[in-house]
Design brief:
Blueprint lengths: L2 H11 L2 H4 L4 H12 L3 H6 L2 H18 L1 E3 L5 E3 H31 L3 H5 L6 H29 L11 H20 L9 H12 L12 H8 L2 H13 L6 H29 L1
Antiparallel strand pairs: 1-2
Helix pairs in contact: 1-13, 3-8, 5-6, 6-8, 6-9, 6-12, 8-9, 8-13, 9-12, 9-13, 12-13
């Protein structure tokens, strides 16, 4: 059995966190150097949720009036929607790099074949790409919460933990996105990504309280991944922490970890075959 065969077999069997050489940061550094030439494309992704926020504050919030926040106390509709849009920022930032970016490097640019000619291994590629996607999601979320605070839409000191929560949302979707990308065969397959993200965005208690959904749909919303992030960040932003948040955080952590493991195992098969 050759060294390549051994590496491929190991990548299929062992968790990526066991095999990581600690060099994943090198891949993140490489991505940062490449993306500095197209920084405007990266930065542009933060504006979509901000436009939603501003449009809501200008118009829809005045029509909707007050809504029930944590503990039943009334809050403005803008304050209700803002944490959900922050979670969406983290999701969008992480998904963009872990799907479209990874697919291009894997199938067309053949970046990973060159990377594996260095001391980096397959687990380093998985960890590095997911880490880079998380950084993009975190950057979006950071800008968002700063503007959110400037608009007076943060109601509690617990909001200092909203950014770490957004990082966790980014990890979950980066892991899941990269794992899904390893099964993609062509650009047409990415229609499934868009078909997944839009319903998540619209039906994760983003714009409406969970109580407004009918019974069966409410149960479905409760188990969606974006809802976990929305509920977690909303509770922190609005000062209503509870034990359920631990469940939301655990869900996101498991989702990201499983995605990381699948991505590492699949990359081992695709690159080293």
């Amino acid at each position: 059995m050759t060294a390549t065969d051994t590496a491929a077999l190991s990548a299929r069997v062992l968790p990526v966190w066991v095999l990581g050489s600690g060099r994943a940061g090198r891949l993140i550094e490489r991505n940062a150097l490449v993306y500095r030439r197209v920084w405007l494309m990266v930065v542009s992704g933060v504006f979509e949720p901000l436009f939603y926020l501003w449009s809501i504050s200008i118009g829809l919030s005045k029509l909707a009036g007050a809504v029930a926040g944590p503990g039943g106390r009334p809050i403005s509709y803008t304050m209700f929607a803002a944490p959900a849009l922050m979670a969406t920022s983290a999701m969008n930032g992480a998904v963009m790099d872990s799907t479209f970016g990874v697919f291009f490097k894997l199938k067309f640019a053949k970046v990973y074949e060159a990377v594996l000619a260095t001391p980096l291994g397959v687990p380093d590629v998985a960890l590095g790409e997911i880490g880079w996607a998380m950084m993009r999601g975190t950057a979006y979320s950071t800008v968002f919460i700063v503007i959110q605070a400037a608009m007076g839409l943060v109601a509690s000191g617990w909001a200092v933990f909203a950014l770490p929560a957004a990082v966790l949302v980014g990890f979950a979707f980066a892991g899941a996105g990269m794992a899904a990308t390893t099964f993609m065969r062509s650009w047409q397959d990415f229609d499934f990504i868009n078909m997944t993200l839009m319903p998540l965005f619209l039906f994760s208690a983003t714009f409406y309280p969970l109580t407004t959904y009918p019974g069966p749909l409410r149960l479905l919303v409760r188990i969606t991944p974006l809802y976990q992030g929305v509920a977690l960040i909303r509770g922190l932003d609005l000062g209503g922490p509870n034990w359920a948040m631990l469940g939301h955080a655990a869900y996101l952590a498991v989702m990201g970890t499983v995605g990381l493991w699948v991505a590492g195992a699949r990359l081992g098969r695709l690159i080293l075959r």
